[in-house]
Amino acid sequence: MSKNPQLLVFFCLFFNASFSQSLKKETLAHQGSAHFVYANTKSYYIQESIGQASVIRTFNTQNYSLRQGFLQPVNASYLNDNVNSGLDALVFPNPFTQTVNIRFNEAILDVLHVNVSDMTGRIVYSGIYNPVQTLAIQLNDITSGVYLLQVRMRQKTLVSKIIRQ
What we know:
Elements: H1 5-18, E1 31-39, E2 42-50, E3 57-61, E4 64-68, H2 76-79, E5 89-92, E6 99-104, E7 112-118, E8 123-129, E9 134-138, E10 145-153, E11 156-164
Antiparallel strand pairs: 1-2, 3-4, 5-6, 6-9, 7-8, 7-10, 10-11
């Protein structure tokens, strides 16, 4: 047997430490969720994100604002259902699986600019369409979730919340 038990213990600890796992900092990018919460006759929009590795901070100078972090604020006018959009249309089906249809209730005389953005404001689809009374938009490449659909014709705009199943 060994005459020096301290040397044996030291050797075992050193050998074990050299083959042990080390903890590394990892980040899950772009996971989380968003919810509307209703409390005390008010509605709140809450976003949570997993994987923010850096400091979240807002820097303001004069007329500019720089925000750092995954979650960026959504323009509040897009979330207000009472906004008079000026462009009258029916968006269906909602929720949808691949195609969103828009049937306009007024004459479409100019090209249509279509943007679909996620709830963080990132544009996930953009397109320009010739004047039609019923427009079918293929959204096969976006994931399930809640999106904002914006359709512009001249100065008129339609904003609608759409849900991908």
